[in-house]
Design brief:
The protein has 715 residues and is α+β, with helices and mostly antiparallel strands. The protein has 27 helices and 20 strands. It has a 5-stranded antiparallel β-sheet with strand order 2-3-1-9-10, covered by helices on one side. Strands 15-17-18-16 form a 4-stranded antiparallel β-sheet, sandwiched between helices.
Amino acid sequence: MGAPSQRSLLIELGTEELPPKSLDDLAAAFAAGIAEGLTRRGIGADVAHAKTYCSPRRLAVLIPNVADAQPDQANERRGPALNAGLDANGQPTKALIGFAQSCGVDVAALEKLETDKGAWFVHRAQKKGQPTAALVAEILADALKTLPIPKPMRWGDHDYTFVRPAHWLVILHGADVIDAEILGLKSGRMSHGHRFHHPKPVHVANADSWLDALRGAHVLADPHERRARVRAEIEKAGLATGGIPRLSDALLDEIANLTEWPAAIACTFDREFLQVPQEALVMTMETNQKFVPVFAADAKLTGHFIGVANIESKDPAEIRKGYERVIRPRFADAKFFFDEDRKQPLAAYQDALKSVTYQQALGSVWDKCVRVAELARVIANRVGVDAGLATRAAALSKCDLVTRMVGEFPELQGVMGRYYAKESGEQPEIASALDEFYAPRFAGDSIASGKVGQVLAVAERLDTLAGIFAVGMKPSGNKDPFALRRAALGLARTLIEGNLAIDLGAQLSEALALLPDSALLAGMPTTKDAAPPAFDAGRRRAELTQEIHDFILDRLRGYYTDQGLAGEAFEAVRALAPPDLTDFDRRLRAVVEFAKLPEAQALAAANKRIGNILRQAGAAEGGEVDARLLEQGAEKELADALAGAEADTAPLAKARDYVGLLKRLAALRDPVDRYFDGVMVLVDDPAQRANRLRLLGRLRGLFLRVADISVLPSA
């Protein structure tokens, strides 16, 4: 009996330890490259059920039901038309003879193809499909070229490179080895198990038994199985501590990608280190050592942590001692930094900020603090927050940057400011603001919870956007070194979610007014040949105000898109340019609700029609309508309905009840429809035409109290 025509294909590339943070992406790209190579070459395979495997020392893919060969391919090549292939005597012409020769056959072997557009000579042939075994080496080579490897390594005295030195290659189609050579390695069926538990080569009988063979050699090659074991091991070790291990998804991924046979070990550290802010200790454990911190039920750090070894040791006490010995000097350093930093109050670090350059044209970090403090004072007064607290928080906001602790752990900026402010006796609102104003720190993070923190967050981002745009360093393409896109979205979110009602454009103008003219001049374009344009600081500030305002709204559009709010609704509100983003938000959500009404599409179409009529007639929106010129019927009905709607919506507009306002306007659909069905607007009589344009202008102006609904989808 012959071998089956479809069998599982296994490809495993063994290496030295791969980068743990890149391993998942490398494995996914490796598997996708192999699957795409099979598909592109027409080799039948169940690529939808391909399994991606990896461990610190290997990349692998298992694809079921891979055919032994490509299918035979029918090849049809069209030659000369029938009347061009035969002469008047029915003999082959030179064109037909040449075509037959190019196909490698006699003229007699050619066939005729009849279509409704004519007849042609064709050559039909069957091209035999190549064996899969003959194509795998090429598929593997192509897949390796597509891997995301920013800095490939070279080893030995050869020219090929890879992310890490490669040491073995297994390629099995069913039970058969497919011969190939890549990166200087010849394929076989011998894999390798755990470096310590099973140092001998592992014989793999067939592709489907590979996973179990490695498991028997103390290697969990399935990353999902390995993650599950890491989590289970940590939970078991956590029970021994009596606390609650905190294992983030990122740390879980990294630990799983550092181990092939994970085993968790509960450890302890001296309780004297608990005097250090727990964020610093946790940062050291998670970032530097890949240890899992253990917390009490009240979310306070305990004196326990969990390390995950890549070996199931016969003497776990020795590994525990090693982990505890490693963590002690790091914690001791953190305690030293913390103790030294507290020998002077937080405000004493302000002088050091004067010698730290923020940006050459924008001055020192202290200069930035001064600008932010002034902005915070103004904003606080406008939104009813204690301006003294906001100004003091701004003056202290960058002091922790020059402390020893933040110098060692930059990620703790803000966090340490909060601790040191409390130690220095600052008001609780100020201490909290020094940490909170960095929020949102990442996508999905919350804004600052306290009002002082919110004011400081807005002031800080206003100065950053104004300053960096002014010096000409705005984002371009995927380059955003000052994270201005994140700053713009954080600013907008804080205003909206914090319900801080300020005129954004006016506040941007004030931020730009605090910058020296030299900063604005630094951002002006220069050319070698042409004389620089005359510099007008006022005009430049006005241009930048509009540019930054547009930049913020562009970020805001994505914010609403992520919430599932239609882009047309956003543009309908943006057309009115509400200066206050909290008002922008109310209008947008009202328009979204309005768009759900059955009258919405017809009224959107009517508003679009009205806008076109007014634009073509060169008429202004609004104006007094002369009741004497109104005709009975649809025109008088619309005028009366409009007057009633104006009266009803005035208090709603004042209260910013835009949902209620638009629902009231939805009742105008029928009189508007009847008006356009029965009334000619652009009549010959100039007085009547002008009166009708004023009526339509008032109607459109009524809707424009909320948004330009002509932008919405219309019937």
